[in-house]
Amino acid sequence: MKNFLLLFTLPIFLWSQNLNELIDLAQKNRLVNSYNYGLDSLKDEYKSVKQGYLPSVDIGANYSQAKNEISSVADKTTTAHASVSYTLYDGGKREDTYKSYESNIKSSEENIVAIKNQIALDVVNYYYNYFSLLAQKEAKIKEIEQLNAQYERLKKFYDVGTTTEDELQKIISNVESANVNLHEIELNIQTILHNLEYVVGQRVDLTTGSTIKESIESKESLRADIKALEYNLDTKLNQANIEKSANLPTVSLDNTYTYYDMDFKNNAYSYPIDDQNIFSVNLQWNIFSFGETKSKYESKYKEFLSAKSQYEYEKNKANVDLQLAKKAYEIAKLKIKSAEASLKAAQSAYEVIKSKYQNGLIDNVAYLQSLSEKFDAISTLKAATFDLEVKKANIIYHTGENLKDYIQ
């Protein structure tokens, strides 16, 4: 029987995730897989390019039969050849091509780090916003419960004619308004769960308790997306140099061995040699092309300048974002202190007003306002507490550190 019950309870634990587990799942989603496949493809392409610069070996064979034999064409001819070729120098194109691929690969690697960190930040926002909304929902439900209790109490007075209908209708109106707000909160909660499901790739059930370590004194470094742009700069510059290399000569080596088997019917047409080996050093230099090489180089170099401007813009923006994140964190701490003071004041005011209201000293308008302020203060404090965690995550993200390392 215990094992039978375990089968029903086990899925509950399997579907429940804390923040760390959510980030783990999200960072293995299809978007990240797509980036990983792209990186693997680029590495394979680079490997093939490097292999293409190694010495190449070609072999071939030919058999032919002539209708009319002459001194230069045998009745039957069989030839076989093997050649080895290697580009000794190509104006620096090879080295620049290697550098271009290497920097492009590093850029792709940093992009993967960046997308993972961005996903982690998104999950953090969803996670704490979810619990902030749950706090609002809980406060709203308690508010509705209090309103319903007051409605039942007031209805008894109304039934005996000691209060007016408009007093009762005010309670009903506030209950209806609170119910609408509750449905809106519930919709926002479901929206967050659906967004998380989209990011994570499966249905989620969140567990509370996860926090983020502070990183105020952490070292600042470039974010991964900025590093990716930096490597992309190197790629663009190397691509420009590849085009520029066309102005320089290309030197290649070639060695070809050929074997001949000439089968003449007429012995007078015998071929003097049976094989031949030819070694050659080849030089090719384009000395004039109506400015084609220059135009290609300038085009690629302007792409580099464009990427450089974007890099400088994004780098400066990242620095500004970090400073703003730090200021937002300090403000978030002040909001918690303010929310704590507001809750204390609202709680005290509510107790006083509730006592006066129950003794008939004030009307229900003041009571309802006090009740609303009390539960608003409760949800505001919880929301401020969760918001502080988000602000800590923003600082970690903008300092270029791995956000997941700070989840506890």
Provide structural commentary.
The structure is a single chain. The chain has a 4-stranded antiparallel beta sheet with strand order 2-3-5-6, with no helix packed on it. A two-stranded parallel sheet has the order 1-4. The protein contains 8 helices and 6 strands; from the N terminus they run H-E-H-H-E-E-H-H-E-H-E-E-H-H. It has helices at 2-15, 19-26, 30-52, 93-159, 165-200, 224-244, 292-358, 364-398, and strands spanning 16-17, 56-65, 76-89, 205-206, 250-263, 275-284. By secondary structure, the chain is an alpha+beta fold. The model is unreliable at 1-14 (pLDDT under 50). The protein is elongated.
Briefly summarize what is shown.
The chain is of the alpha+beta class and about 400 residues long. It has helices spanning about 1-15, 20-25, 30-50, 95-160, 165-200, 225-245, 290-360, 365-400, and strands at about 15, 55-65, 75-90, 205, 250-265, 275-285.
Feature tags:
single chain; 408 residues; alpha+beta; two-stranded parallel sheet; 8 helices; 66% helix
Averaged pLDDT, please?
Answer: 88
Number of helices: 8
Q: Work out the radius of gyration.
A: 39 Å
Looking at the structure, what is the overall shape? Answer: elongated
Low-pLDDT windows of residues: 1-14
Q: Could you say which structural class the secondary elements and strand pairing correspond to?
A: alpha+beta
Main β-sheet, in a few words? 4 strands, antiparallel
Distance between the termini: 37 Å
Residue share in β-strands? 5-15%
The neighbouring-strand order within the major sheet is 2-3-5-6
> How many beta-strand segments?
6
Order of helices and strands: HEHHEEHHEHEEHH
Helix percentage range: 55-70%
